[in-house]
Records
---
Amino acid sequence: MNKAYKIAVSGAADIRACPSQAKRLAEEVGKEIARQGCILITGATTGIPYFSAKGAKKAKGMSIGFSPAASEKAHRRVYHLPLDYFDVVVYTGFDYSGRNLLMTRAADGVIIICGRLGTLNEFTVAFEDQKPIGVLVGSGGTADKIKELTKGPFRGQKKIVYEKEPKKLVKKLINLIKKDKDNL
């Protein structure tokens, strides 16, 4: 069993922007995170994060959601976001961009599935913080643009793994997290 690494799943809240298999892939990633003994972290929202949390719960895993809202009431009534499938919800009160920063920084690694601009924001925070990142290849949107975006010279190391199979992606990311932790 692995140390309980915290793995964030970042992806489109509106899955209409994603290929038809994105929902299934997100659930599989969530299940595999739980199967590997890790804790799932998401933005406590709909779409890809929601389906990954659903997958983690199906595998009897733990899921923590970071909400953009300041309270449960605002989470439900202002942002219209779900609460099921989350064991713990952290109400940040920092809207989406502040939530993205806190969620990403709380994670040991980040998985990108599909995505839009919010996902790109979470990716850039993880990239700049030199966090281990896993990209689900072929899941659409931001995920399929990251390889091109990261070409060229950058300060620091690129800690990114690419994989099209959810199970293999989670395993590769966990290995990258272990390697990163061993180098502390």
---
Amino acid sequence: MPCVHPTAIVEDGVSIGEGTSIWDNAHLRGPSRIGRDGIIGEKTYIAYGVMIGDYVKINAQVYICTGITIEDRVMISAGVIFTNDRYPRAFSDDQLGLAPSGPTEDTLCTIVRTGATIGAGAVVGPGLEIGRYAMVGMGAVVTRSVPAHGLVFGNPASLHGWVCVCGQPLGRMPSCGRCGRGYTLIDSSSGPTLSLCD
């Protein structure tokens, strides 16, 4: 059974996997899917249509809007904000009053791949991919997709190196000094990426 704090708001249509804990004052909108054996921290907001995998740790006060997919074993640190619209307005030119809050043709989807970490206070722009086992530094403003194993930080975030599956920065070494995994740097048409050697 999942463990849901009595002050959490879990709307109809939210699926929560076995062993997941939902902490105080979190708000989960339905329909959405939360995987097994994860943590949703206090005062976190998860919009409808969000898909979250297994073994995901989401800390306190995280904002996850519609259009976000988070794969397995991801760490989302405190205060992270996701966005899904590049040119947001409160109003619509062809309507009086407020623009609709639901997804529109301008809504852009973002995916956080398996094993990635997003540091505290980072802001993730719309329509991006955070690659497998990538690490986004605290306070980063992510405006471009991050390659697998990429280490990015700054405003705007830029690539500063590579990290191992275990989280250790790799520096210039082809293997990890902590766990011994070996890697190959691959140049592709979309830019450099790191690949784990078999």
---
Amino acid sequence: MTALDDLERSVLAAIDGSRAAADLAEVVRIPSVTGSEEAVQATMARLMADAGLAVERLEPDPSAVAEDPDFPGAEMPRTALPIVIGRLAGRQPGTRILLVGHVDVVPVGDHRTWVDEPFSGAIRNGRLYGRGACDMKGGVVSILTALRAIAATGAMERLTGDVRFVSVPSEEDGGQGMLAAIRAGATGDLAVITEPTRLDVVIAHAGAITFRLTVPGRAAHASMRREGVSALDKLFVLERALAEDEAQRNGQESDPLMTDLGLPYPTIIGKVSGGEWASTVIDTVIAEGRYGVRLGQTVREAERELRSAIEAACEADDFLRNHPAIVEVTGGRFSSARIPADHPLPVGLADTVASVIGRRPALRGEPYGADMRLLVNEGRTPTVIFGPGDPVVAHSANEHVPLAEVVDCAQVVAVWLVRTLSG
């Protein structure tokens, strides 16, 4: 653990927890569901400027981004893709650091399951509540708070290199905002994404693809159901095959970063529809789900495994052999990513966590997809995930983030910036 020097202590003293809480409440109260991020990005631009950052707004054409050969998919229609970048420059060129966060959030679900209004920004018992508080506006405000302290103390005048705060839309449905930012030049020597990690350091993550199965059957009158073939029964055949495939794929994993998760590559069917009449054997069922992308895999490789599992199940079934299910990959496409545990980025960040909050963080893997893989794979930028909040409450009713963790994250980021840019 490295002791704090005078500049680091001065930056820590400038961290304003009350202002962080107020900023977080303001951005949580903006309902920035994926596809509608213009209002929150206008607020982010204002907050960055107020914090002393030079601000640039980008407005790439979503239709042009969709033509990119590495387009990561989308699940929501959009007419805009607003990106905001705030900059702080040191006394001379040097290391470029990206601090990255997304401002889009998932829909709120059933309002009746929330104690407060989903976009209330209510504070109780040291926690701020609201959709996106944990995933990941808490982390976004941690970046803002850290950079405000850096700017207020004039620390950049004693540092080399520059810092870029990249606020992106559209992470939740694939990451086209991050890809567009990368194509516009948002790459660097190091990057930290402040997604919720309970202030541990994530150095690897799995990925996921979403899929749609169109499962056939043969209609018949319910009173003579043996004359028909239920598409729902055939969906059960495919679901069992996917469960067997899930067990096999997870059983083949040997990397402790992933095996420690228990089920690093889950497969689920999350939506099923079909049937038109209660007394008719169902002739078509549509099922939509998520298929895990293994560490080291691309989405295309995972898609081949998914199709292979479904094709084998159809071939083994008397009806589906001649009437196979149709497999489509839809929505977001999240590849996996990792950086070595001994890379200077996680090593230095972990040392800073120990210096600032007195706890050595774990270096972990996660089962979910993230913008990290775009920065690593497309932007060639070593990246880790480190941020406030527990991912278990992300996307849930009564989502929240501990305000103390938002401040702790800001403190760690601020000191890590000083240390990294002091060379």
